[in-house]
Amino acid sequence: MEPTEFPRIFRHGRDLYTENATPGVRVYGEDLLKESGTEYRRWDPFRSKLAAYLLKGGPSSLFERVRSVLYLGGSHGTTVSHLSDLLPGAPIFVIEKSPLSFAPLLELSRRRENLLPILADAQLPERYAADVGTVDLLYQDVAQRAQARIFGENANACLNPSGRGLLMLKVRSISQSRTARSVVAEARRELAASGLSIGPEVDLAPFSRDHLAVPVTG
Predict the structure, then answer these.
(1) CA–CA distance, 142 with 211 (Å, rounded to integer)
(2) Which of 115, 109, 71 is CA-nearest to residue 90?
């Protein structure tokens, strides 16, 4: 097991791993590997867009000085669980709208104390902003047409002015007919209109088709 440039992320062969905060427990059927008394969880880039982003060259600065996280679209907790491994001292507020997805997310939070799930609509940050406060990292993986607007509103409500964000842009959730280039250009304009600085987007193929990671700073 070799350390990477990312704190608390390791590599074994071509695969990424995180140190398991709950040894012996799998979250989504991932492989577990024990070495020198420490158990690691394989971080599947075909199941987690954040893992795909890191493998495609995402910057090691992404997790620097992150004391709290707002995660939009937690689903069943695949990526959230790895963030819990990476940032054991940081509260991770997880917004999920679907009661069906929220149930396993809530169960996951019972084993991982830094996960704080909230059953809410990411389109309405005013309903949870007071509970979340100001965060250093905003992460969004939401299949909505208004993805960039949702991200911008949550950034304005909760993101530290010196914080960072990562929008997983689902191109086909926005339009089935327009080109990916035009969808991305429109999203970048919306993010800029929210006062955010936007970095170069990263295509997540072959791990996730029609998805691009768009990094931003406050």
Answers:
(1) 11
(2) 115
